[in-house]
Structures are given as structure tokens and as C-alpha cells.
Write a structure and sequence with these properties.
alpha+beta; four-stranded antiparallel sheet; globular
Length: 92
């Protein structure tokens, strides 16, 4: 399925604690997959506090993206999640 099929997009940025960062990232991606959300973009960078992650997600319904953020808050090892502005990727 292409990104054009989805009408709602959001970008999230968060940090993952250094302990078991890869396992925590796998859990976050599994959360996205279980909700049927398309992962449009994923960037990771090792920072001083752990792994910095930026993800861009697309879905048919904005509520699903909000639910995804709420579920990501419950993943152990993920610190504060911030929504990235849509202007950064709104233009194709």
C-alpha cells in the first residue's frame, strides 16, 4: 500500500533508554504494526541519553495515530514522546 492511500500523517520523536534499546525499538515497531499503521519513515541516532528515534506514520484515521502514541507511552524504556510539526514533510 502506498502512502497516498492514507489521509492522516503524524511524526513522533522520542528517546529510548540505553538499556536494551534495540528490544525496546522492536516493541515500538510491533505496536505500530498491530494497529495497522504504515511506517513511512524511521530514523535513529545514538545520543548521550540513549537512542533518539524519529518516526513518521500514516493511517486512515487520526484517532488510530493518537492511540498509537498513547500505547507507545506505555512501552517500558520509551521516554517522553513529542509530535513533530507536519510542515517538515507535508510537501512532496
Amino acid at each position: 500500500m502506498t502512502t497516498d492511500a492514507f489521509t492522516h500523517q503524524k511524526g513522533y520523536r522520542f528517546c529510548i533508554e540505553a538499556d536494551a534499546a534495540i528490544a525496546t525499538l522492536e516493541c515500538a515497531l510491533a505496536t505500530v504494526r498491530r494497529l495497522g499503521i504504515e511506517l513511512t519513515s524511521l530514523r535513529t541516532h545514538i545520543g548521550s541519553n540513549g537512542m533518539d528515534v524519529q518516526i513518521r506514520l500514516s493511517a486512515d484515521d487520526d484517532d488510530v495515530l493518537t492511540l498509537c502514541r498513547m500505547r507507545l507511552h506505555n512501552v517500558i524504556g520509551i521516554l517522553a514522546i513529542r509530535e513533530m510539526p507536519t510542515l517538515a514533510y507535508a510537501f512532496k
